[in-house]
């Protein structure tokens, strides 16, 4: 059956990098290797500019009909003065919520050609292949109550800001199942990260991990407090294989893990609903400092296409081919500015995309 893929280019470098990923998909379709159609819709500032809202209804409808979604990035300084509900970031949170995308997979894999670009010594990161599973639609980002209000604080009125970290047993169980399934297929090791020494919500998280773990006798479950986990990630990252954590902790730890691999321009991600439908996107944002200059690295987005083919469309062979093409281009010495080093060939966003196509 023909699959529907929805492209959401978004803002800043989004349209530039999605264009290169689209070229890869079109090549696979036109050469008869992939049975799929491509559609494009608005999100973020692009949605606001054209329709007055960061997540037009039409985009939600198209996303619901699609088998898989590829997003570029949203946001930019031009939108920073808008009311919170109209800002591009609300478009991204909104689509995650509307589609129930609760499981965010962020692999941190070091391409050996880029070992020198890591912020850690090469011997600490050589062969790094880590998967962070982050819960995406619960926790403090969505917990109620939340707000800013004026209250009496020790005798005088002050503004007070508050958010609430909430997880239910079922929310914990479903993210744990995703993480255990992945750990079972990989190295059989899962590290759950929380702050159970201080937070009740983490106590429940830890109980939930242990409970789901009963059904996975082949996976060794360990627990770390988030502060120690952050330290261990930069001390000895290769001790980890799969990590699972809540929304806020995962946001922070996965950016930290990302830098171990050299550049944020290399990192793809996937977010899933309960049926396995996925939204794929580079980890980075709209990079306003380089937008419109043909400087962005399109590889994170092209590697997101690899994940899309592997996880949602079950096209492992095509996914492998994309990975091999990226490896070949790096072997040939082509580098965008963010991963440039001595002796390599500097290319722009478009030329990098063309080299990947040539390698394919
Ligand atoms: P950013 O990820 O856009 O940029 C951080 C740094 O990395 C910049 O120096 C940028 O030039 C560089 N960079 C990012 N992607 C790159 C690529 N593909 N190739 C080469 N260099 C790249 O994060 P920043 O600056 O904090 O945020 C900019 C905007 O993006 C904000 O409006 C923010 O809200 C939004 N944002 C959106 C995200 C998304 O769409 N998922 C995620 C993070 C931020
Ligand atoms: Mg982040």
TrEMBL record:
Site positions for Important for catalysis: 141, 195
Cofactor: Mn(2+); Mg(2+)
SMART domains in the cross-refs: Iso_dh
This protein's record includes keyword Manganese: yes
Pfam families documented for this protein: Iso_dh (PF00180)
Entries under HAMAP family matching the protein: LeuB_type1 (MF_01033)
Record text on subunit structure and interactions: Homodimer.
EC number: 1.1.1.85
Family: Belongs to the isocitrate and isopropylmalate dehydrogenases family. LeuB type 1 subfamily.
Coiled coil: none
Protein name: 3-isopropylmalate dehydrogenase
Residues reported in the UniProt entry to bind NAD(+): 76-89, 285-297
Entry's cofactor comment: Binds 1 Mg(2+) or Mn(2+) ion per subunit.
Reactions performed catalytically: (2R,3S)-3-isopropylmalate + NAD(+) = 4-methyl-2-oxopentanoate + CO2 + NADH
Subcellular location, record wording: Cytoplasm
Biological processes per GO annotation: L-leucine biosynthetic process
Family matches, as InterPro entries: IsoCit/isopropylmalate_DH_CS, IsoPropMal-DH-like_dom, Isopropylmalate_DH
Pathway, per record: Amino-acid biosynthesis; L-leucine biosynthesis; L-leucine from 3-methyl-2-oxobutanoate: step 3/4
Originating species: Ostreibacterium oceani
Domain named Isopropylmalate dehydrogenase-like: residues: 4-356
Binding site for Mg(2+): 227, 251, 255
GO molecular function: 3-isopropylmalate dehydrogenase activity; magnesium ion binding; NAD binding
Protein function: Catalyzes the oxidation of 3-carboxy-2-hydroxy-4-methylpentanoate (3-isopropylmalate) to 3-carboxy-4-methyl-2-oxopentanoate. The product decarboxylates to 4-methyl-2 oxopentanoate.
Location (main, coarse): cytoplasm
Keyword hit for NAD: yes
Domain of life: Bacteria
């Amino acid at each position: 059956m023909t699959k529907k893929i929805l492209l959401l280019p978004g803002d800043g470098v989004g349209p530039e990098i999605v264009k290169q990923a689209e070229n890869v998909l079109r090549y696979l379709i036109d050469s008869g290797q992939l049975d799929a159609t491509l559609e494009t819709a608005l999100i973020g500032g692009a949605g606001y500019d054209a329709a007055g809202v960061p997540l037009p209804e039409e985009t939600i409808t198209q996303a619901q009909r699609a088998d898989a979604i590829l997003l570029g990035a949203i946001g930019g300084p031009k939108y920073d003065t808008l009311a919170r509900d109209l800002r591009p970031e609300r478009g991204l949170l909104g689509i995650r919520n509307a589609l129930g995308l609760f499981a965010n997979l962020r692999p941190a894999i070091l391409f050996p050609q880029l070992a020198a670009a890591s912020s850690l010594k090469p011997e600490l990161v050589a062969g790094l292949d880590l998967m962070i599973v982050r819960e995406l639609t619960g926790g403090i980002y969505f917990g109620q109550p939340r707000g800013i209000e004026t209250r009496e604080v020790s005798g005088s009125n002050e503004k007070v800001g508050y958010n609430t970290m909430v997880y239910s047993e079922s929310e914990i169980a479903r993210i744990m199942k995703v993480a255990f399934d992945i750990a079972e297929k990989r190295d059989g090791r899962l590290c759950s990260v929380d702050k159970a020494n201080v937070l009740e919500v983490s106590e429940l998280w830890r109980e939930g991990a242990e409970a789901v773990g009963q059904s996975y006798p082949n996976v060794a479950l360990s627990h770390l407090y988030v502060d120690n986990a952050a330290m261990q990630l930069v001390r000895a990252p290769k001790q980890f294989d799969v990590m699972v954590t809540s929304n806020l902790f995962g946001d922070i730890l996965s950016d930290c893990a990302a830098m171990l691999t050299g550049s944020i321009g290399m990192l793809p991600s996937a977010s899933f609903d309960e049926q396995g439908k996925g939204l794929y996107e580079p980890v980075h944002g709209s990079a306003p400092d380089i937008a419109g200059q043909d400087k962005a690295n399109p590889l994170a987005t092209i590697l997101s296409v690899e994940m899309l083919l592997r996880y949602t469309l079950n096209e492992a062979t095509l996914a492998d081919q994309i990975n091999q093409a990226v490896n070949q281009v790096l072997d040939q010495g082509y580098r965008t500015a963010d991963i440039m080093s001595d002796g390599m060939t500097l290319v722009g966003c478009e030329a990098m995309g063309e080299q990947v196509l040539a390698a394919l």
